[in-house]
Design a protein that fits this description.
alpha/beta; Peroxisomal Thiolase, Chain A, domain 1; 2 domains; five-stranded mixed sheet; four-stranded mixed sheet; 11 helices; binds coenzyme A
Length: about 325
């Protein structure tokens, strides 16, 4: 059975986040690798990041963020009919983190699957949820972005280890009239840039063995500079696409929530969109780059502070390994 035709849109009705307790500061990194607090702050904007406990897996972080989002939405887990989890660090390859989360939540009537779109996972998840709801296939969808990048980070590689943090963010979506909620979405990928951010070992191409483990193939490899150049270009393309599709200009948005990869990337996007600083949600200083979790965590924190309010027009824009990028424009 499909939904009534006046409900051909989808809106976020609840948002939540979770940050693990343990914090690693820049001063901690000064003791681990050849770096300084000053270098990290000026080159990235990061001061500290949260790191998951040894016994925490992605679904554990996702569970906490989801509970907060469900409570915010006043939705019971049994009402969910779809769970989408964006992650590149699921508890294990099979089953998906989404299935593990579904069981943990008791979302007994829900389908569940993971999306691997690196840092764009939450944007991709929102886009898929929007399509499923607006086509009348689903009524109550949970979208989660969760990452425990500390598990695939080489803590001897100063160029990557200072960047990443662990976190989860979640949103609950429901149907609404087409001119409310999500106004437009955009997703794009370019696999020819795969070598800018990848993890060589552990998949079907290069299963881990003793030699590959010794070579560190279980860790992320990154070309920071190449990513940096593409990030600003891609985030602008995605932002402009959703704005044009919705018949809006950047001056019409109340908040920009960009993926938090580097304060200089965020600043580059902000300036090119001609936005004042107060319209850009930034939390990279205390969470680092949490990949797919970064946008929902920044959103939920800004809502908690009382900055973001119902009715605000919000542009979320992501970028990540793959390459992947995309944006979602909403009236919250
Ligand atoms: C990683 C990043 C912060 C590096 O900043 P950068 O200005 O591009 O710096 P470079 O990579 O050119 O490196 C400059 C120097 O700093 C050094 N450096 C790298 N990490 C360092 C650290 N933690 N502390 C001190 N020096 C460091 C490099 O070794 C290099 O030294 P060299 O010139 O002697 O070779 C930046 O490129 C970035 O944020 N890129 C995007 C990353 C990203 O978004 N990743 C995830 C995808 S969402």
């Amino acid at each position: 059975m499909t939904l009534k035709s006046e409900y051909t849109g989808a809106k976020i009705v609840g948002i939540g986040y979770y940050l693990p307790e343990r914090v690693l500061t820049n001063l901690d990194f000064e003791k681990m690798v050849d770096t300084t607090d000053e270098w990290i702050i000026t080159r990235t904007g990061i001061r500290e990041r949260h790191i998951a406990a040894e016994d925490q897996a992605a679904s554990d972080l996702a569970f906490e963020a989801s509970r907060m989002a469900l409570e915010d939405a006043n939705v019971e887990p049994e009402e969910l009919d779809l769970i989408i989890v964006g992650t590149v660090t699921p508890d294990m390859f099979v089953p998906s983190a989404a299935c593990t989360l579904q069981d943990r939540l008791g979302a007994v009537k829900s389908a569940a699957f993971d999306i691997n779109a690196a840092c764009s996972g939450f944007i991709y998840g929102l886009s898929v949820a929007h399509s499923m709801i607006s086509h009348g296939k689903n009524k109550t969808v949970l979208v989660v972005g969760v990452e425990i990048l500390s598990r695939i980070t080489d803590y001897e590689d100063r160029a990557t280890c200072v960047l990443f943090g662990d976190a989860a963010g979640a949103a609950v979506l429901k149907p609404c009239p087409a001119d409310e909620g999500i106004l437009s979405t955009f997703m794009r990928s370019d696999g020819s840039y795969a070598d800018l951010l990848y993890m060589p070992g552990g998949g079907s191409r290069r299963p881990l063995n003793e030699e590959r483990l010794k070579n560190g193939e279980q860790f992320l490899k990154m070309q920071g500079n190449g990513l940096f150049k593409n990030a600003v270009r891609a985030m602008l393309e995605a932002s402009n696409h959703v704005l044009i599709e919705a018949g809006m200009e950047s001056k019409d948005i109340d908040f920009l929530i960009p993926h938090q990869a580097n304060i200089r990337i965020i600043e580059g996007v902000r300036q090119r969109l001609h936005l004042p600083e107060e319209k850009v949600v930034v939390n990279i200083d205390h969470v680092g780059n949490t990949s797919t979790a970064s946008i929902p965590v920044a959103f939920a924190e800004a809502k908690e502070r009382g900055d973001i309010k119902k009715g605000d027009t919000i542009l979320m824009v992501g970028f990540g390994g793959g390459l992947t990028w995309g944006a979602v424009l909403i009236k919250y």
